[in-house]
Amino acid sequence: MGEIVVVRHGATEWSTSGQHTGTTDLPLLPNGEDDARRLRSALDGRPITHAFVSPLIRARRTAELAGLFDGSIETAIEPDLVEVDYGRWEGLTTPEIGDRLGHPWSLWADGTEPGDSPGESLDQVAERVDRVLARARPLLEDGDVALVAHGHVLRVLTARWLGFGPERGALFPLATGRYGVLGYEHDWPALTGWNTGCP
Question: Positive or negative, the Cα torsion across 6, 132, 22, 190?
């Protein structure tokens, strides 16, 4: 039985500054591209047969540089892996959001608010990632499945894999250019690796 390899894209200008980046389509920084290239050697060592990639350029470029579009893997763009729609909080840091609200803010406790985009609840994100997991699970009979996406959406997906509500994604921070592994222990869904990268 294969495992699910969740890969967060490499560094961008906003991920480096701490700005929330939902649907804003930013490119990787040069060091973000370096991170993605380093991931290639780690992923080459895994029996990946399928990959699903967020349509945003930072994820697509990471997947490309990590070798997931080289033809030996069945790779597809997956709209359900797009990052959380932060609505009013797009482009702002957590302290900036807290200043505007007048109290500390957390996506996991407070959610989003409408702005230039509608924003998205954690339950809505959970519905999306549940669809991705439903597609991925049958493919694990043939090998690993890589999911290349973004920090918050992959944290919600990890919580759902483990049988938790989406708010428990708070427990699984994932750095840019790093990956985690979702597998099984004695037939129970388990976290079998986390925040792994290449030096």
Answer: negative
